[in-house]
Amino acid sequence: MLQLAACAPYVALADGVEAVDPSRDDVEIRGHVLDAETREPITGALILVQCDCLAGRREVMTTDGRYHFRGLRPGRYTVQMLHGNNNVQKRLEAKPGHRWHVGFSAAPRPRYGCH
């Protein structure tokens, strides 16, 4: 599920909205990864951000379902979440001073074993 809202001076993706700070040009992208069934936070999901404005990609692992990228340059970003069989990408355009919240839902990892 992708929800996108953008109107100056506010920007939102998923369920967060933050005011743009005109005194800062850098961009922040943060968010969460939740289990699609239980809505519990997922630790250990890999989050990648990619942009032509960066020298390579940046990545972090979620802790308590959360992640955060600071000090990014304005540009068109792809934010990707990898966890188990989940591979979800969202795209956004970040202008100077924007603070984005990008939320993901992940299907639970398959459980193997005898029942």
What distinguishing features does this structure have?
115 residues; mainly beta; Immunoglobulin-like; four-stranded antiparallel beta sheet; three-stranded antiparallel beta sheet; 10 strands
State the gist of this model:
By secondary structure, the protein is an all-beta fold. The protein has strands at residues 4-7, 10-13, 17-19, 27-35, 46-50, 58-61, 66-72, 75-83, 86-94, 99-106.
Instruction: State the shape.
Output: elongated
Q: Give the number of helices.
A: 0
Radius of gyration: 15 Å
Task: Give the termini distance in whole angstroms.
Answer: 32 Å
The CATH C-level class name? Mainly Beta
Which range does the strand content fall in? over 45%
Average residue-wise pLDDT? 82
Number of spatially distinct domains: 1
CATH superfamily: Immunoglobulins
Q: Output the strand order for the largest sheet.
A: 6-5-8-9
Largest sheet: 4 strands, antiparallel
Q: Which spans have pLDDT < 50 for at least 5 consecutive residues?
A: 1-17
Q: How many β strands by DSSP?
A: 10
Description:
The protein has strands at residues 4-7, 10-13, 17-19, 27-35, 46-50, 58-61, 66-72, 75-83, 86-94, 99-106. The chain has 115 residues and is an all-beta fold. It has a single domain (4-106), classed as Sandwich (Immunoglobulin-like), CATH 2.60.40.10. It has a 4-stranded antiparallel beta sheet with strand order 6-5-8-9, with no helix packed on it. The radius of gyration is 15 Å and the shape is elongated. Mean pLDDT is 82; it is low at 1-17.
